[in-house]
Design brief:
With 122 residues, this protein is of the alpha+beta class. 28% of the residues lie in helices and 44% in strands.
């Protein structure tokens, strides 16, 4: 296997493993902060971007570069001539509904949320 294809293969394997999350595991991940105090969630996720007595919102933004190889036919042979870099921006919002300073329900929206709320430690 060429060195160019190895990173792509590892990326695909990681993507496939992330997709192996069962619905029960996903639900457990999404509700892992339910019942905790806001201070406990802050210890895990950092300071919320907004907070009222009934709701707290955390935001995670991230960006990364995806490199797409560019090929040209030169002398009848396809040769790698460079890369086209594409910036991918991600934004995830974790919204916690609060009652008596405890999370009673929560939602996630956006992209890259798996990084914001990884699976709880077993």
């Amino acid at each position: 296997m060429t060195n160019i294809l190895k990173p792509a293969l590892f990326g695909l394997i990681a993507l496939a493993l992330a997709a192996c999350e069962t619905p029960a595991e996903k639900q457990q991940r999404l509700t892992q902060h339910n019942g905790k105090t806001v201070e406990q969630v802050i210890a895990s996720l950092g300071t919320p971007v907004s907070r009222t007595p009934t709701q707290a919102v955390w935001e995670r933004t991230d960006s990364y570069v995806v490199r797409h190889p560019e090929y040209e036919r030169i002398g009848g042979v396809m040769l790698l001539v460079g890369y086209d870099n594409q910036i991918v921006n991600q934004k995830c919002l974790y919204v916690a509904d609060l009652q008596n300073n405890r999370v009673v329900s929560s939602t996630l929206s956006g992209t890259g949320c798996y990084k914001m709320l990884p699976p709880p430690a077993g």
